[in-house]
Records
---
Amino acid sequence: MIHLHDRIRTYTVIEFNQPYLLLTLIYMAGIYWLSSLSNLGIRGIDTSLLHVPLYAGLAFCLLKAMPEARPRQAFPWKLPGLIFVSAAAYAALDEWHQSFVPGRDASTGDFSLDLLGIGLMLILARF
């Protein structure tokens, strides 16, 4: 005989840090807006180098939005892995989006710098 309680599944609900989740969404919208500009208007600086701090900031926002993200907490590998994959997916979509913007193009070099920024922030967050 099968009992009803044998068929009930439990699900884990993730409760995000709401203010940081909102900040993350605004930050992502800002990245999208910057990617939509044909010319950033920055002279004398290689704009590719801005990818590292920009995506480090995104990783920071995602880290703070997660419920387990607390300062100096040794967190399991799943959390940084999830953040890395999420931010990397957004970086890939951002590069794809730039391929449609006049005067901009998709670049694997820029994508690599995005990944570097994400990885550096996750490494810094461990300490």
Note: Residues 78-98 form the longest helix (21 residues).
---
Amino acid sequence: MAVPLSASDEEARERLEIDLLRETMEGLLERTRIYATDIDDGALQRARDGAFALKHMKRYTENHLLAGGSESFSSYYVADSDQARFDRTLAEGVVFAQHNLVTDGSFNDFHLIVCRNVMIYFGFDLQEAVLQLFGDSMARFGILALGRKESIRRSRQAECYEPLDEAERIFRRRR
């Protein structure tokens, strides 16, 4: 799985996805390698540290419950005065790596690529290049998850995907 990050709350979304993998798919997390990438070393370091503003934890807890989390979300982190620090075991299968979606090429054959709210900052040509990179990096029938404001509809890559959940911008690669 690849998770290109932005220097915002995407790191926490990744942690939520990891805890849901742990809860819902017994044994899958141990067999999964997650690549969390960003062009920004600072964002990568914050993700490695697993520390997030405590003010966001209410929303993250709500998301955890909406996604079907069965354990108490607070069991995954320790809170101090203004931060929550996630349990380091959540990141055991995560490789944090610098990667530039614009200039770097494919580096694996992924079954899932999650790239939420990154491409909204790119023009059409750059979005096309990134979608081509994702296609080159994805296993047959792999899953692509984009942000709610992102789309592949007008892309030349659109025919390569079928929608699984159009509202959530989740697609499966056809070939």
Note: The chain has a mean pLDDT of 85.
---
Amino acid sequence: MHYIGKKGFTSVPQRTKRTGRAVNLGQLSSMIEKLIDEKKAQLDGQKVVLDLKQLGFTRLLGGGSISRPIRVTVDHCSESALEKIKVAGGETILPPAPTSATTTTTK
């Protein structure tokens, strides 16, 4: 009997590479007062200003709900989280999309 390729298998958690941590919108909503008290978030009028990268999070997911308007800076954000933040009167600041670098070769 002949085997082709690698023997064994690779489990799913070993194949997926996730970098950074994610937080749901509901979790973030419950942490807002604590973050303001610890001076990790600032108030700008009625909006709460947060930088999730400084808190150790790189992704914002749409689980849960939010009632306060927030201005959040994050690397990645789900569509549902964007929509819920807009409905609450807040805004999301995402990094600019990377542009494809064109290389020129000289002959």
Note: The mean pLDDT is 83.
